[in-house]
Amino acid sequence: MKSSLVLCLATVPALSHAETIKLLIQEFAPFTHTDVRSGEIQGALTEKIQEILRRAGDNYTISSTSLARGLNSTLNDDNTCLFGFRRTPERENSYKWVGPLVTDNWVLYGRKTDTRVLKNFEDAKPYSIGSYKNAATGLQLHEQGYRIEFSNQDEDNPRLLINSRLDYWIVSESHGMAIAQQQGYANDIVRAIKWKSIELNMLCNIRMDKQRIELYNKINKELDNDGTMEKIMRKYGIK
C-alpha cells in the first residue's frame, strides 16, 4: 500500500496550479484596454494571454494600472505578470519573459497640415517628439539625442501635436490611431515615417516557476501556429 502511494504521488505533475496569477495591463488599445461601458478588460493581447492561461489550467485576476506601478508590482509581487511591453536590456534580468506575443509597428505621427517630409527617421532629430513618462521607446530615443518631450500620459500627445506643441508623436501605429479616434483627431494626424517593428511581451516576477514560464511560452507559439492569434488580430482590426 505504501509503495502504491509513493507511485501515485510520483505521477502528480511538479507544476502546481493552486496559485492565482495576477495579470496587469496598461491602457494600450487595441492590445490591452478597459471597455468604458462594461468595465471589462479587453484587447488582442488580453485575449491571447487569457487563452494561454486557460490552456495552462491557471486561475488569474486581471486589472489595469500605470506603467510605473505595473513594473514595480511585477518586480516585487509573486505570481504577477505585466503584458504588452518591450523586452529591453534594462528590464531583461529583472523579470522572466513570455513572448514575443505580437509584433507592432512604431511610427512618428505628424499633423496632416505639416508640409515637412522626412526621408528617414534621423531627419526628425531637430524636432520635438512626444512620448510619456517611463516609456522605453521615448527613453531610448532621448539617449540617442532626439528631442523627446515626456508627457504624464500618452493620451496627452494627440492634443499637444494638433496644437503645435509637438512636431511629432512617437507611438505604436495601432495604439496611436486608437487614441486619436477616441479623441476625435484621427483625420488630423498622418503617419510621417516608420521607426521600427517592436515585439511586445509579457514580463513576470523573477521568482515565478520556470516550468510555468516554459509552458506559457510553448502555448504562446501554439496560438501563433494554430491560427488563434490571427483570428484575434482580425477581430480587433490589427494588421
Q: Key terms for this structure?
A:
239 residues, 9 helices, 8-stranded mixed sheet, 10 strands, single chain, globular, alpha/beta
3D structure, described in words:
There is one protein chain. The strands form 2 sheets. An 8-stranded mixed beta sheet has the order 4-1-5-10-6-9-7-8, sandwiched between helices. Strands 2-3 form a two-stranded antiparallel ribbon. The chain is built from 9 helices and 10 strands. It starts with a helix and ends with a helix. It is an alpha/beta fold. Helix 5 (136-143) links the parallel strand 7 and strand 8. It has helices at 2-10, 44-56, 67-76, 89-92, 136-143, 157-162, 173-183, 210-225, 228-235; strands at 20-25, 33-34, 41-42, 59-64, 80-85, 95-111, 128-132, 147-151, 168-172, 189-205. Mean pLDDT is 92; it is low at 1-14.
Write the layout of secondary structure elements.
Layout: H1 2-10, E1 20-25, E2 33-34, E3 41-42, H2 44-56, E4 59-64, H3 67-76, E5 80-85, H4 89-92, E6 95-111, E7 128-132, H5 136-143, E8 147-151, H6 157-162, E9 168-172, H7 173-183, E10 189-205, H8 210-225, H9 228-235
Parallel strand pairs: 1-4, 1-5, 7-8, 7-9
Antiparallel strand pairs: 2-3, 5-10, 6-9, 6-10
Helix pairs in contact: 2-8
Oligomer: single chain
SS-based class: alpha/beta
> Which outline best applies?
globular
| Low-confidence blocks of residues | 1-14
Please count the beta strands (DSSP E, at least 2 residues each): 10
Number of helices: 9
Beta-strand percentage? 25-35%
Strand arrangement within the widest β-sheet reads 4-1-5-10-6-9-7-8
Helix content: 25-40%
Radius of gyration: 20 Å
